[in-house]
Automatic annotation (TrEMBL):
Residues 24-163 form the HTH marR-type domain. It holds the Pfam family MarR_2. This is MarR family transcriptional regulator. It comes from Dactylosporangium darangshiense. The lineage of its organism: Bacteria, Bacillati, Actinomycetota, Actinomycetes, Micromonosporales. InterPro entries: HTH_MarR-typ, MarR/SlyA-like, WH-like_DNA-bd_sf, WH_DNA-bd_sf. SUPFAM superfamilies: Winged helix' DNA-binding domain.
């Protein structure tokens, strides 16, 4: 069986601290390495579009919400694992660029909404297509069946760790 870069790293740990080597180390190191490769792809595409990865995440979440492409800032922050200060900074930049609009709720003055502008919808679609295309190119050397199987197995691991989808 062919070996990857991390097999050598794990072998070194097996020599130094054999009690720390196991399936969890191998999985953790490979997920981390893959995450770094994916982050490189996202950073490259977002930088080319003049966006930060956090701005991409917000535009993507708003576009994914479907028409009218509106979400409460607190829901954006919690869904994207950003602090309230972090989401405020991102939203301010996107609003300055004309990609989002902020609006109050007519039925409840305590509620605010963030909505994609017309330009924001177009920008979100363009950057989502760019990022997913770059991800597809990254994974292109691996057979689709292998990529699909890996995604399914990682879903199983996440569910085992308690990462269960909320029911609508």
């Amino acid at each position: 069986m062919p070996r990857d870069h991390l097999d050598a790293v794990i072998d070194e740990w097996r020599e130094q601290l054999p009690d720390v080597v196991g399936p969890s180390m191998a999985l953790g190191k490979r997920i981390h390495r893959l995450a770094l490769r994916l982050q490189e792809v996202v950073r490259s595409e977002t930088a080319a579009a003049g966006l930060t990865p956090a701005e991409y995440d917000v535009l993507s979440a708003l576009r994914r919400a479907g028409p009218p492409y509106a979400v409460k800032p607190s829901d954006l922050a919690s869904g994207l694992l950003l602090t309230s200060g972090g989401i405020s900074n991102v939203l301010r930049r996107l609003q300055q660029d004309g990609l989002i609009e902020r609006a109050g709720d007519a039925a409840d003055a305590r509620v605010a909404w963030v909505r994609l502008s017309e330009a924001g919808v177009a920008a979100a679609e363009k950057i989502v297509r760019a990022v997913t295309g770059a991800q597809a190119r990254l994974f292109a050397p691996a057979p689709d069946a292998l990529v699909g199987e890996a995604a399914d197995r990682l879903r199983d691991v996440l569910i085992a760790l308690g990462d269960i989808a909320k029911e609508d």
